[in-house]
Amino acid sequence: MRRGSNRVTHSTDFQAWAAAGQSRVEAVLLLLLPSPEIAPQRLHHAMRYAVLGGGKRVRPLLAFAAGELSGADPARAAIAGAAVEIIHAYSLVHDDLPCMDDDVLRRGKPTCHVEYDEPTALLVGDALQSLAFQVITENKLNDDANVQLQMAKLLAAASGSRGMAGGQAIDLAAVGKVLTVPELEFMHVHKTGAIIRAAALLGLMCGAPVSAAEHAQVDTFARLIGLAFQVVDDVLDVDASTADLGKTAGKDAEQGKPTYVSAMGLERAKAFAEDLRVEAMKSLDGFGERALRLRQLADFIVLRKF
User: Fold this and answer.
1) How far apart are the first and last CA of the chain?
2) What whole-number distance in Å separates Cα of residue 221 and Cα of residue 295?
3) Residue 35 burial by CB count (10 A; 0-12/13-18/19+): exposed, middle or buried?
4) What pLDDT shows up at residue 53?
5) Closest CA to 198 of 94, 96, 66, 99
6) Cβ distance 175 to 255 under 8 Å?
7) At 284, phi and psi to the nearest 5?
8) How many other CB atoms are there within 10 angstroms of residue 211's CB atom?
9) pTM of the predicted model as reported, rounded to 2 decimal places
10) φ and ψ at 84, to 5 degrees?
11) Which of 66, 70, 122, 141 is least buried, going by the fewest C-beta atoms within 10 A?
12) If you average pLDDT over residues 265-288, what whole number do you get?
């Protein structure tokens, strides 16, 4: 990525913070997912297979980082982040099915329908989606019940036809077509960005109320960094190996999917991701050191190699 202003230096401090957050949310997920000893055992085994022990956990980390702006209890932010991660995992299971992207590798291991079978994978996605809303409603995430209701509504909207599922529908309809950059942005604001935005806002809402202006700043940051996440994904699909990605590299081009690389070219796509990162940083002006982790996550998302 080309160099821009407002870059936050990656340090062992950030790495330690991220590792602690990843470990914390992993422990929460272990507790939230049904025990493999409970019937139906095969389904519960498959749910745990799809969720545990893989991924960068960027969405829960965003919940932790945004929660720092509102003084959120990390235990509450962990639950909110876990709920978003469960939704994300369900979407990956369904995306990998033969009727969608038909992929055999995810997070460096066989996809859920390959490891188990297609009907089980379909049920895994269904059950994980339900579990996410059980998690976000049965745990106290805010002292104000109305705020918690709004949190559940936010996650539902981000997951549904006006969010992630709608974005996937647009993606499937776009195979073999040429999309403009604004059309790509519309698709990915829904498919990828909606859940990333939800992660940050849910973490923020786990704490004390913030001003409308501060809420809007976090919303803008999350929207920009969610879009940058997808641009970088498109770049890495061309630039990285299957071993590094943990999923099949070059799949987008093979399937005729429109991407930022196909629309802009590789170097312009890299530059666009950097521009989005800089704009995301600017949206946090005024937060000072409280937004350090969000800034570091922006760097991590744009500068990652896999």
Assistant:
1) 13
2) 9
3) exposed
4) 87
5) 66
6) yes
7) -95, 5
8) 8
9) 0.92
10) -65, -40
11) 122
12) 95
Mutual orientation of helices 292-303 and 266-282 as an angle, nearest 10°? 180
The residue with tokens 């936010």 is 154
Give the Cα separation of 237 and 190 in Å (integer). Answer: 20
Q: Crossing angle of helices 193-205/145-159, nearest 10°? A: 170
Domain ranges of the chain: 12-303
In 6-144, which ranges are continuous DSSP H helix? 12-32, 41-51, 58-67, 74-95, 112-115, 118-138
d(Cα 296, Cα 284) in Å, to the nearest integer? 12
Q: Which CATH architecture has domain 12-303?
A: Orthogonal Bundle (1.10)
Residue 106 DSSP SS3: strand
Measure the CA–CA gap between 233 and 306, rounded to whole angstroms: 8
pLDDT > 90 in the chain, percent: 84
Using alpha carbons only, give the angle 165, 171, 177 rounded to the nearest 5 degrees.
160
The pair of three-digit structure tokens given for residue 297, joined into one six-digit string? 């996550």
Least confident of 12-16, 23-27, 193-197, 218-222: 12-16
Nearest Cα residue to 46 out of 56, 33, 55: 33
In the numeric block, the tokens 């935005």 are attached to 197
Annotate 201-237 with DSSP letters as a single string. HHHHHTSS---HHHHHHHHHHHHHHHHHHHHHHHHHH
Read off the pLDDT of residues 94-142 as tens digits, 9 standing for 90 and up. 999 999 989 999 988 999 999 999 999 999 999 999 999 999 999 999 9
> What is the token pair recorded at 238?
């061309």
**Closest to 230 measured CA to CA, from 292, 179, 272:** 272
Q: What Cα–Cα distance (Å) separates residue 171 from each residue in 93, 126, 194, 227, 296?
A: 16, 20, 14, 15, 30
CA distances from 168 to 79, 198, 203, 280 (A): 26, 17, 25, 24
